[in-house]
Design brief:
The chain contains 8 helices and 7 strands.
Length: 242
């Protein structure tokens, strides 16, 4: 990312701590806001990620930046024996644990607080690793990707779902208007944290996507790197292996 975007521009905290603080603040409103902001289309994107992971028949899966656990819960459909969701924000994890308990999945899914740039796992640990709408929040993208590469088993699959920027008219113009004007407004109306959704919009616009992110993945050691834009390019699914 050519420009470092942080949630609280006047804060003395580093990006990692700011992101943790921001998600702790918006955790109870996050799921509902996400459905509104994406018009519910994010559910369809996540299903595609689940299908890609399920096709590899994983036994152990790590979901990084798991948030309130939407993807981790869906990963139970892959048949994996072990699913771990990791996130910086204890507030988001607390919401996720309640959802997991409601689904009777507490024995299968473990939610732990941790740092994506210093993963508390041994080398070659997981058959599959996923990150949905989280890599743009890494303080050091390359360090986070190198850690993911380290704990992924050889032959394992790594899948990213992340926002991207449409390149074709009129979707490009519509996206910029929505993300710059409507997204922060919706966030202010529904969230206690008035700057959170401005940050999410700014960070999405500044984050590398498409072939640029593919090249960063390759430099981190990943192979079989590929990507597929979703819904006119407002999001992209990336897949890679080791």
């Amino acid at each position: 990312m050519s420009k470092k975007i942080t949630p609280y521009k006047d804060s003395d905290l580093n990006k990692k701590k700011q992101v943790e603080q921001m998600f702790d603040t918006i955790s109870t409103k996050y799921d509902g806001l996400n459905r509104v902001i994406s018009f519910g289309i994010d559910v369809k994107w996540r299903k595609k990620v689940i299908n890609m992971v399920a096709a590899t028949n994983p036994e152990s899966v790590l979901d990084i930046a798991t948030g309130t656990g939407d993807l981790a819960i869906s990963l139970a459909k892959t048949g994996a024996k072990e699913i771990i969701g990791l996130d910086l924000s204890e507030g988001m994890l607390a919401v996720g644990r309640k959802k997991i308990a409601q689904e009777n999945l507490s024995k299968k899914i473990e939610m732990i607080q941790g740092d994506s740039e210093s993963l508390p796992f041994e080398d070659d640990r997981f058959d599959a690793i996923t990150v949905a709408f989280g890599v743009r929040n890494f303080e050091n993208l390359e360090k986070g990707l190198s850690e993911i590469f380290r704990v992924l088993k050889p032959g394992g699959i790594f899948v990213i779902l992340e926002t991207s920027v449409p390149t074709k008219f009129p979707f490009k113009q519509g996206y910029h208007f929505y993300s710059k004007n409507l997204l922060p407004l919706i966030g202010k109306l529904f969230s206690k944290d008035k700057v959170a959704y401005s940050y999410l919009s700014e960070s999405a616009a500044a984050f590398p996507y498409g072939e640029e992110l593919n090249n960063i993945l390759r430099k981190s050691g990943f192979i079989d790197v590929r990507h597929k834009p979703q819904t006119m390019g407002v999001a992209t699914i990336y897949a890679a292996s080791k």
